[in-house]
Amino acid sequence: MLLDEATLYIYSMYMSLKRKLVQAGGSLAVTLPVEVVREFKLKKGAEVDVSVHPQTGAVTIRPGVSYFEDGKVTRRFERLAEELLERRSRVYRELAK
């Protein structure tokens, strides 16, 4: 995704802001700025990928997965990716060092 100049400004500005955790049922949630929600066309209930870098602890939130069919992520691809991550988790941890 190529971001225009205004979006890059908004993106970099908001990426450095602190956000508060809010209670969401039995979990905690982080709110996203409206500009980020609009830019990535996020909707309530949309799935996002959340990852934590093993060395820095940086948390990354990305919209969707890269494999789509008719505009939607296939359930099969999602299931296969999760199974692969489980099977290869030790290898991936070693490679990340």
Task: Give a quick rundown of the structure.
The protein is of the alpha+beta class and 97 residues long.
Low-confidence stretches are none
Order of helices and strands: HEEHEEEEH
Proportion in helices? 40-55%
Number of strands: 6
The end-to-end distance, rounded to whole angstroms, is 28 Å
Main sheet attributes: strand count, strand direction, barrel closure: 2 strands, antiparallel
> What is the residue-mean pLDDT, rounded to a whole number?
78
Alpha-beta classification? alpha+beta
Described by the principal axes of the CA atoms, the overall outline is globular
Q: Biggest sheet, strands in spatial order? A: 1-2
Counted up, domains total: 2
Strand content: 15-25%
Radius of gyration: 16 Å
- Total helical elements: 3
Describe the structure.
By secondary structure, this protein is α+β, with helices and mostly antiparallel strands. The protein has 2 domains: 1-42, no CATH class; 47-97, no CATH class. It contains 3 helices and 6 strands, in the order H-E-E-H-E-E-E-E-H. The chain has helices at 5-15, 34-39, 75-96; strands at 21-24, 27-30, 48-52, 59-63, 68-69, 72-73. The strands form 3 sheets. Strands 1-2 form a two-stranded antiparallel sheet. A two-stranded antiparallel sheet has the order 3-4. Strand 5 (68-69) and strand 6 form a beta hairpin. The mean pLDDT is 78.
